[in-house]
Known about the structure:
The chain is an alpha/beta fold. The protein folds into two domains: 6-69 and 159-227, 2-Layer Sandwich (Ribulose 1,5 Bisphosphate Carboxylase/Oxygenase), CATH 3.30.190.20; 75-155, 3-Layer(aba) Sandwich (Rossmann fold). 28% of the residues lie in helices and 22% in strands. The protein is built from eight helices and ten strands. The strands form three sheets. The chain has a five-stranded mixed sheet. Strands 5-4-6 form a three-stranded parallel sheet, sandwiched between helices. It has a two-stranded antiparallel ribbon with strand order 3-7. It is globular. The two termini are 36 Å apart.
Amino acid sequence: MIKQSKRYHSSSEVTDLNQSYPLEEALGLLSQMALAKFDETVELSVRLGVDSRQSNQMVRGIVNLPSGSGKKVSVVVFTDKPEEALAAGADEAGLEELIKKVKDGWVGFDVAVATPAAMKEVRAVARILGPRGLMPNPKTGTLTDDVESAIKEIKLGGRVSYKMDRTANIGTLVGKRSFTTEQLAANIKAVIESIGQARPETMKGRYILSATISSTMSPGIKLDNSLYSNY
């Protein structure tokens, strides 16, 4: 049995962990919980009613958080003009050497960008990047000739990816404890909307079963289904 910390028990006294709350009220309760000595990450956990055994019911996506994520984002760019990408703010850039580095097991970055001209070579590491949601894609703005604009948008920290796990759960960051209630609410609503729009066409019955918010050191607070009942 996992032993809970004193901070966890103290936070648990703020709310009834078996009750669900409207979003703004839940965020208010979270703000009353004990603070850690660092700026904790706030996470949204969503349980889906899909059949995770079916490949056509996989749920994943990328969403731009209107209030940003509060996280420093590292970006690599696959391009034959690495100097331009580095000047635009990329953490690493290149083509053959960068691809070899990934082949050797390095995936120490949050987002990968590529130019269309580089994609033939980048496909050599698709099996490594794809399962991690890192494969450049025009739909997410990461496969583009306008590398400078892509890097600047990504570096704002508002873009986060999510992917359903084998138990049909999604967990994704939505900000920091230092964010205001309004900022966190806007981010959470954006993520819920994105997940809602990603509903598989083959899905039958209730899609979003439950949603919970928590910070790094806090217990989870259940959200009232009025937030996601339309999905």
